[in-house]
Each structure stands twice: as C-alpha cells, then as structure tokens.
Design goal:
heterodimer, A: 278 residues, alpha/beta, four-stranded antiparallel β-sheet, 11 helices, globular, B: 296 residues, mainly alpha, two-stranded antiparallel sheet, cell membrane (chain B), transport (chain B), amino-acid transport (chain B), transmembrane (chain B), membrane (chain B)
Chain lengths: 278, 296
C-alpha cells in the first residue's frame, strides 16, 4: 500500500468538541481505488472523522492536523468548495430534504459547471425516476438512502465519503445498497463507515480501525477479517459461544459491530452469505 | 353587516402590512437562524426613501406614475440596506446568536436615531395619490382604497414569493436551507449567497410595507418600524419560523383578531388578545402553524 499514492491522507487529525477530545491524532490514508472502510466501536469518532475531513465540525469545535487530497491541503477550505471539487458526501441518517420532491432533491445536487448524470443515477435507481414527484419525506428508509447516494452520483467525484449507508435498513435493501456501492467503487474510491460486517467483508479492500481517539490498526481488510482473534480484540466482536445473529437479518441494534448495550456482537461466519454472496 | 365587512377588510389591510414585514423576517430566521431586530429599520428606510423620492427624485412624485416610481425607489432602498446589513454586520457573526441580537438591536436604535436627526421626530405627511384617499363601496361598507391597495400588494408579494421559492434554483436552495442548512453546503452550494438574497428580499418586502403603510396612515415617523416589528415577530412565531405561507395565515389571524376585538371590546384589548393567541399557539403547537418548511 505504501507505493501507491493515496487519494486522501489524514495526518495527526485531532478534534475537540465541547470539551471532549474525540479524535486524538488520527493518521491514515485512503487508497486511490476501491473501498477503505473506517471501523470502530460506537462513539469512537468515525462520523467525526468524516465531518472533519469535509470541514463540517460544529462551530466552537477545535480541529488540528492536516488532511490532503492529492497535493492539496483541505484544512480551512469551505465545505461547499471541497464538495464542488469532487468530494462527495453521503451523510449518516441520509439527510434528504423531506419537504422537497425527489426530483427537487436531485436538482439541488446538480453541481455548478458540471453536466448532471441523470442516466447513471436512474440506471442504478429506477425507483427514483418513477417517484420523481413524491416528497422525499414520504419515501421509505431504503428509498431515501438511494436518493442520498443518487444525488451524489449525479456528479463526478474524486472521492466519496459514505457514512453508515445500511443503518436501519431491511436486509434486502442492505444487499441492494451494498451492490450499488460495489459498482460505484469500481470508478471512484470510497471511504466508508460501516457497522455491518457482512457488507464490510463484501466491499472493503482496506480497513482502518479507530479506538480511543486513535488509529488502532490499519491494513488490508482481508487480513483483519480473517483473524478472528484480531477482529475481536479491535472491535469487540465475535466472542465465541454467544448466540449467532445472522448479519443479513439484523435485529435492531444487534447486527452492528458494536452495540451500545454490551459492545460485543457475535459475528456469524456462515449466515452473511446473502449479503456477501456475489 | 357593513360594519363586519369594513372590519374584515381593514383587518386584512392590517394583516397585509404584517405579512409584508413578517415574510422576510420569517425567511431570514428560517434559513439563517438570525433574529433580525433591525428588520423594522428596513420598513422605515422604505417609507422615508419613498417619501424623499416623491419630493426630490426626478420623474417621481406624489401621484400617478410618479408615485409608483417613488415606491420602486423605496423598495430598492430597502433591498440595498437589507443586503448591506447582511454583508457588513451579520456575516461575521453567524452562529453567534447573542452578538447578532445585540448588533441588530443596536442597529435598529441607531437607524431610528439617524432618521430623527435627519428629518426630525415628528410625523411627516406622506404623499398620497388621489385614488388612495377615496373609498370604495363593498357590500355597503365604505372601505378606504389605501387598505385595498395594501391587500392587493400583499397578495401579489405572496404569489411572487411562492413562485420564486417553487420554481427557481435559488428558491430551491432557500427551501432546502430552511430544512437543513448544513446539508445544502455538503451538496456543494455556497448557502451564504442565499442568506444575502433573503435579506434583500426581506428588506424589499418590508420597505414596500413602509411605503404603503405610509399611504395608509397618511404620515411617516421614525418609530413606525419598531412598533410594527413586534407584531411581525408574533406573526412569525405563530406562522412557523421560516414559512411564508404560515406567515400569511398568521398575519390574517392576527390582523382580524386585533381589528374586531378593538372595535367590539375596548381599544387595546385586541393587542392583548394577539398575545393570548401567541401563548395558545405556543402551548398547543410550538412549531407554529406550518412548522419549518418555507412553502407549506
């Protein structure tokens, strides 16, 4: 990985919000192709990392360290300019505009100076074309996620930041979203935050694990997932003897890498076939 | 019967005035989270600029096309002042609520003082075209034309605002920004441009209220803007922060309530009823009539 010039390099990123030192010197790189997945227990700062890269840290928050995309330093640049220059963002909880129609949501995402690729979006999500006049707030969670991904794909991106795209979705929709991301990642590198290990297994080429505000491990995703012992120590998952919850049919809060209640969720090696199967 | 028609139409005239001030205030608050206490100043600027133009601007005058030109000048002045206030005073203070309130309160005080220093504290007779001084008979009620003019102007502004919000790119940005400003930025849009635009629109609408209010009341004084602003704030809260349509409904409710209660009850009771209405709405529906959505 070291020979390849990374698309994104984060160095000594430190974020303090309202007195909490959430990130304490995070350094990692994102490969210029494929999916780099950002892992870690709940509340470890994965979303904070993505938002800091985009310059979306809330006012009063303190950000230190450097973020470089190619030769360019991103620190201090306004968010809208970063996005316009090809940093696409699919936020956690989708954040579609509920009062606007699907068509209006897409129209809003057209970036200045580009030619919006409606063909590409409607080919991936024909549903969005059919539901053009529907208010985004009345779409199902899965459809909203398609819209959130679709509006980013309307434009050409150099890197996509995607935050928990399968959170709260039905198993069938999780598979669909994973399929779309797999196709998207062929053309654009993706930095993905994802809690569903089956999706991670299917998509990720590289992995970065955060723990206690720092990078605890980084390397090839295969290597991490192959070593059950390593996975368990870093992510607190896969404790032997516990009941196996199939990842393809997540019970609320249980299919996550780390649940807020006990922090350890069993990983099934066999039942994630539906999602991981190609 | 004719009394009820008269009270209804004059109440709507008052509502029109409130709506013109409140619509801009509401958009500014909904999009930019700015409580703009200087909004009343935009109204005064519009009134005084119209008054000044009617007497001094070549081509403008107190009647006919000259008056239209004078009002246009007043509205343009309101838009320019609104824009300047956003660019110079508000922009450096986004997300700093206390400082914003202080600077807009200070600005409104300074603005009133400046108008007083220039043209005196006494009311000045406002130019009134002949037609606006007459009355029109509606179902037996003799309704002042200046009130009808206000209602028509407010209806036109409402239609224009809704058309702008629904069918233009900037309108789309404003509607989305009222819902989730940060996400608009994350789609690659410089939302601050929309802030400036909303201040300009709000300034223009308030200035129109100032000009037509001057015609309605027959005079203009430096403190007019401030007293109207209180009711405009009430209208914004009742209607729902950020909603133009909500402002329209709330303005009608407040205008009619005030007019009827002041006539049938004791004078001044209408204002108390308005505050009571505000309290009831806040208790039963804290998000206001329309909630946080620009065009619903």
């Amino acid at each position: 990985m070291s020979e390849v010039v990374p698309i994104l390099a984060v160095a000594e990123l430190s974020v303090r919000i309202a007195g909490l030192h959430i990130l304490q010197g995070v350094s990692f790189t994102v490969a210029p192709s494929g999916v780099t997945v950002l892992l870690g227990r709940n509340g470890v700062g994965k979303t904070t990392t993505l938002r800091a890269i985009l310059g979306l840290t809330p006012r009063g928050g303190e950000v230190r360290g450097t973020v470089r995309m190619g030769d360019r330093s991103l620190a201090g640049e306004p968010t809208h300019r970063l996005v316009r220059d090809g940093l696409g963002y699919v936020p956690e909880d989708r954040c579609v505009f509920a009062g606007l129609t699907v068509t209006e949501n897409l129209r809003l995402a057209e970036r200045r100076g580009g030619s919006p690729a409606y063909d590409r979006v409607f080919e991936l999500f024909p549903e969005l074309k059919r539901r053009g006049r529907q208010r985004a707030g009345s779409l199902s969670g899965g459809q909203q996620q398609m819209l959130a991904i679709g509006r980013v794909l309307l434009n050409d991106n150099r890197l996509l930041l995607v935050d928990e795209p399968t959170k709260g979705l039905a198993p069938k929709v999780v598979t669909e979203v994973a399929e779309v991301l797999e196709r998207v990642a062929v053309a654009v590198p993706v930095l993905l935050v994802e809690q569903n290990l089956a999706v991670v297994r299917r998509l990720a080429s590289d992995a970065v694990v955060l723990a206690a505000g720092r990078v605890a491990w980084s390397g090839a995703a295969d290597e991490l997932l192959r070593e059950a012992e390593l996975t368990r120590s870093l992510l607190g998952v896969g404790v032997a003897g516990e009941s196996h919850v199939p990842l393809s049919t997540p019970a609320p809060g249980s299919a996550a890498l780390s649940s807020p209640t006990d922090g350890s969720v069993p990983v099934s090696s066999s039942s994630d076939a539906e999602v991981a199967g190609r | 019967m004719s009394t009820i028609v008269l009270l209804t139409l004059t109440g709507l005239g008052l509502a029109a005035l409130y709506f013109l001030v409140a619509s801009g205030l509401s958009l500014v608050f909904g999009l930019a989270d700015v409580l703009n206490f200087a909004h009343g100043l935009f109204l005064s600027v519009g009134a005084y600029a119209t008054w000044w133009a009617a007497g001094n601007l070549p081509g403008a005058g107190p009647s006919g096309f000259g008056f239209v030109l004078a009002v246009a000048f007043g509205v343009a002045a309101g838009a320019v002042v609104g824009m300047a206030v956003e660019l110079v005073m508000i922009r450096p203070l986004y997300s700093r609520t206390i400082e914003q309130v202080l600077v807009t309160v200070g600005l409104s005080l300074a603005g009133v003082a400046l108008l007083q220093a220039t043209w005196g504290a006494d009311p000045r007779p406002f130019p009134r075209p002949d037609w606006t001084q007459r009355v029109t008979s509606v179902l037996g009620a003799k309704v002042p034309n200046s009130g009808i003019l206000l209602i028509l102007a407010a209806a036109l502004v409402l239609a224009a605002l809704l058309g702008f919000l629904r069918y233009t790119r900037y309108g789309l940005v404003i509607r989305a920004g009222v819902e989730n400003r940060e996400m608009v930025t994350a789609l690659g849009i410089d939302v601050r441009k929309a802030f400036t635009l909303v201040f300009a629109i709000g300034g223009a609408a308030a200035a129109l209220a100032g000009a037509l209010g001057g015609v309605y009341f027959g005079s203009v004084s430096p403190s007019q803007g401030g007293s109207l602003l209180i009711f405009a704030f009430i209208v914004v809260v009742i209607g729902g922060m950020g909603s133009v349509v909500g402002s329209a409904y709330a303005a009608v409710a407040v205008g009619l309530l005030q007019q009827f209660v002041n006539y049938y009850g004791t004078s001044g009771a209408g204002d108390i009823c308005v505050v009571a209405l505000l309290a009831i709405v806040l208790l039963l529906r804290p998000q206001g009539i329309a909630g946080r959505a620009a065009t619903t």
